[in-house]
Amino acid sequence: MKLRHRLFASKDPYDSGKEGLFLDACKENFDHLITHCDDYKKICTGLKIGSSDDIKSPADLPVLPTMLFKQHDFKSGPHFVTATSSGTSGGHKSVIGFEFSSLMEALRMSLKVTKYHGVISLRPCRYIIMGFKPTRTNKVAAARTAYLTTFLAPALSRKFILKPAQDGGLKPDFDSIVEALRKYEKGKAPVRFMGFPSYTFFLFRVLEERNIMFKLPKGSKIMLGGGWKQFYQEAADKETFYRLAEKTLGISEENICEFFGAVEHPILYCDCSAHHFHVPVYSNVIIRDPDTLEPVPNGVTGLVNLISPLTGSTPILSVMTDDLGVLHDGSECPCGVRSPYLEIIGRVAPEDIKTCAAGAADILEGVKV
Q: Is residue 29 domain-shared with residue 159, that is, in the same domain?
């Protein structure tokens, strides 16, 4: 896909002058998907989108709800690797496949975004991963992403907070993390936390309750990713999170960064110095009215529709999440990046979501799920 390659070759990850190339790359991706995935073609036909000629803007692309990928296995090309969601929605998991070329584009994208935000370092550090160790059989995207992030600076060690429990699940081992921090505090190597914000916040609370305060080496960072998942209702506001990070670990707000993404939309969003998720050149975000599904103006809350032509192996060109969000003008952010930024407000119950693929169940009737 030549246009996709040109898009992901953009030097500036927030280049606002690539709208035309982005749309052309999406149309190129659409032409591939509709000719290589019968189920996707059925959905497009049901939505009366027969070819890329019907697509005048990213908003015209057929939108598939992320829930649909949890119920049906879509394939539009060979899968070099697969990744799954965490399965927090009733145990169902999305299985997303990637061809080799899309992985190379994703790697190129990730290096540019992390370099832009100053996350890449040559200084060796110790990693504490607020998640579980990925294995060959465990293909959960959040675990793999957290592990891959430990290559952004040379790793002296990696320690995981989630350990196997007797019931076959996973449980956080806060005691071993506290023990490790006692050792790391005395060393010179920075400590980097990476993973779920929920377990990071729970660690803060454990330290505060035990009246244990650390002053970790200079250059230590907290890097968050994967969202709050099943702990969404317990999510802390950012001010509380930053305050406890400073109090319990000695890590200030400027050394805390957050990543956003989804297995159904594997584009890396990294927050800026003002902690806003600016939309990179490789993607597009449309906020849609929950009732009409029409795009709404910036500043209005609605369902988050994520778009990217990254992969041709699975039809995730345009997906509707179960997130409620607001898109803001980039000029409202003091960091200097002028691309719009996404603010996630919360989530809606799956049964309350209407999507542009309304009737997708009817369209897919007769297709084995």
A: no
Cα 90 to Cα 40, 63, 70, 162, distances in angstroms: 24, 22, 10, 21
> Bigger pLDDT: 21 or 140?
21
Q: Tokens 């930053």 correspond to what residue? A: 242
Question: CA-to-CA distance for 238 and 171, rounded, in angstroms?
Answer: 25
In whole angstroms, what is the distance from residue 349 CA to residue 351 CA? 5
How buried is residue 53: exposed, middle or buried, by Cβ count under 10 Å (0-12/13-18/19+)?
exposed
CATH number of the domain within which 243 lies: 3.40.50
Whole-prediction pTM: 0.87
DSSP per-residue string spanning 226-258? S--GGGGGGPPPHHHHHHHHHHHH---GGGEEE
Residue 207 placed within a domain:
yes
Tell me the two tokens of residue 30: 């659409």
- Which residue range is the domain that position 202 belongs to? 118-261
pLDDT tens digit sequence for 132-176: 776 665 656 666 777 788 899 999 999 999 887 777 677 889 999
Q: Measured between alpha carbons, how far apart are the two ends of the chain, in Å?
A: 29
Give the integer Cα–Cα distance in Å for 71 and 95: 10
pLDDT score at 178: 96
Cα-based torsion angle of the residue sequence 15, 20, 26, 32 in order, rounded to the nearest 10 degrees: -130
Single-letter residue type at 227? G
DSSP per-residue codes, 117-144 = TT---SS-EEEEEES----SS--BHHHH
Question: Residues 251, 129: one domain?
Answer: yes
Among 179, 132, 121, 180, smallest CA distance to 155 is for: 121
Q: What is the pLDDT of residues 99-132, one digit of tens each?
A: 999 999 999 999 999 999 999 999 999 999 988 7
Cα–Cα distance list, 326 to 15, 67, 217, 297 (Å): 21, 21, 37, 9
Confidence of residue 355 (pLDDT cuts 50, 70, 90): very low
Is 108 inside any structural domain? no
